[in-house]
Structures are given as C-alpha cells and as structure tokens.
User: What shape does this take?
Amino acid sequence: MQFFSPYANKSPDQWRVRVGGNSRIALALGLSIVALLSSERPTQAQSWNMYDSYTQSVTLDYLTPQQGATAPALHVKFRGGENIHERTIRVTMDTGSTGMVIGYNLIDVTGLTPQGTGSIIYTSDNQVHSGTFYDLPVTITGAAGDSRSAGGTVRVLVVNTANTAMMGIGIDRGGNPQVNPQYPSAGQNAFLTVDKIDGASTTPTSFRTGYVVGKDRVTIGLTGASGSGFAMVKLTPNTIYPPNQWNSPQAGVIVGGINLGVGTFLPDTGIPYMLVTPQAPVQPGSPCAAPTGICASTTTPVQIILLPQIPGGLSYSFLAGVSGSSPLTPEYVNLRPVNTANPLDAASPTSVNSGVYFYQGFNYLVDYAGGWIGYQSNGAAGISGFVPLLALQSTVALPSGFLTDLPTYLIGATVLEQAGTGTFAS
Assistant: This one.
C-alpha cells in the first residue's frame, strides 16, 4: 500500500491517499482525509465511482404529484391465491416503517402457505395491525401510463384491518423480537427483494440494492447516474436487532435555541408533521394536533443538523408553523417525552422524525448493500452547508479501482477494507 502525504511538498489541491494490495487499514477519529473545498480552489465537479459499474435501475413517478403533506403512493400488483390470481392496488410508500402490510379484503390468499403470524406497530400514532405472513411475488409500478417496473418476492403481512395498504421501505425500523418474532427484516422490504427490473432478472454485478427517494419519484437500484452528487454517510452495523443490519443515521436538533443533543434521524414519508424527543422546555403551541406530548409554538426556530459530526455541516432550519420560512416546514413539531419502556428510545433518547416535508428539499439515498445513506439538496430555502462529500465510520468496504475526489471525513473510528487498489484524491 502507499500513502501520499498531504504534508510532503504538496498543496491542498494535490492531496491524495492511495490504498492497495487488498488492504485493511484502521484510521484514527478526527483525521480529515481530504479537506473541504477552500475558497481559492477552482470550481469543478467532484464525484466517486462506487456505483459506476452497475447498470440496472428503474425510476417510478408517484401516482400523484407531491405537495408536501401527502405521502407518496405507487401501484403494486400481487399474484394471489386461487380466486384472484392478480390484483393491482395503490399502496402508500412509507420510509418510516418496514414491511408490506395489506388488508385481508384486498388480496386473496386461498391455497397459499402461511409463513407465521405477526404484527406491526406504527409508533407515530400507536396503530397496531396483526395478521399472517405470506410470501408473494409483487410487481411495483408508478404513475398511469408508465410501463417500467421492479419486481420480487416479498413476505407480506396480510392483516385483519380492512383496506390497509402500506409498503414500508425504511431501514432500522424493526420492533422487539420478544413481542413479534418476525419483526421487520429485509425480506419484508419490497425494495430490498427486487430481482427483476422491467421484467429482466437482476444480477449481483449489474444491480446494486438500494434506492433514492425524491419529492416526486423514486429510483430503485443504484448506478453512477443515480448515486452521484450526494453527501454520503457510512452507517454503523445494528447490533441490537441484527436483522435490521444497519443503524439509523444521526442528526442533531435545536428547538427554540435549546440543544437537545444528537440521536437517530428518520426522514419519514408517512407523516406530515415532525416528531422530536426528548421534550424541549419550550412554550407549547395551541391548539396541538399531536396525540401525545406538546407542540412547539408558532415561530419557534428549529434546526436539524444532518451532519452533526462535521463543524458547519449540512443542516436545515425553519420556524415552527410558518410554512413560508422554508418548504421543509412540517405541519407542526411534536415534542415527546422519552419512552423508557421502548428499548429503541432507551438506546437513543434523542431522535428526530422529519416527516414528509423533508423531501421538499432533499433527495434521500439508501445503499442497503453497502450500508450508506446520502443527502442531496435541491437548494430550497432553509438548507445550509450542503456539499457532496464522504463521511466515514465503522468498516468501509471499497471495490478494486475505487476512486473519489470528494471531501472525505472520519466521523468515527474507521477501517478501510480495500480490494485491489483505490484512491482518495482532491
């Protein structure tokens, strides 16, 4: 392996780290491999080639244009039981949950083999849906007239609640396995079980399991085109509920000038308001539509720091209840106490659920295969500090020929596992 030191007669524009020979390298917290752009540096496109070798993806437009408060929806075709062989229904695409949850009256399961019972709890409103799991082939399509599709076999929870139609695609949304032995896992996430794009079978070398959620559309499968221009954050492995595989990203939150700390961040398409724990000692709003806790009063300043480990890192701000302050302003900000009985809350007493208005300002990338998430700003009012970059922590597996000139930061203890050779350059 070779390291080209930034201090050996090189200007910042020439900094380069090259790793080779199937190396495993531990890096110390606090090191910046490549500095952020200085004001003297000429403007140029920066990128990485992590997804350049992948070619299969599909972009699906939502069934209705997104106006902020409405959760996105897609069509799903089920190949059901003996009486209804195929049926297409409208499903809500929910990044705040994991699992396909379909009401008993929307799908025929006659003659199908049950895969056990289970339940799902939507914690935003404490709704519980219980039923039976079935493994079903599904085909996902977008707006009318769009012939493109993604397909695969999904473990679907057919519930006792009529007319339920949810497609949860979130990561790290599992529950307690002592309560629900089949708590959400990758096999229940329709975007993670895709094995066909436009009817053609996927292969490990052509399809990268992941997706990009935007305001008006979603892209399933990561390629060089769909996976560039993001502030990329490496996730850490989930050791509390390993089937979830990856932990949620982290964010800081400041409400009314009070710093509530750093904790989990969930960019949730399923609700139009924001959830924050713990409660901040701020004046509650009136009236408050939230089912529990209090709401921040109108004009309370709120800042969500998406890269809290990097000084001046990416964030967005708004005034509670003032939609004109930013397109990302949720309907209200619900401040909730920590639920000490919930092991997830106990593990991370600070948490932020952004609600769907987040997508008025950002595209959100999930690379499930590699354990990355990414934020891409559209320049909306209230967003600050956006620059494409890499934020590294935990174990980072790099393919042979890896190349990036993105600003790169260590936000935690990091081990680089390099197959062949790779280069960090600026």
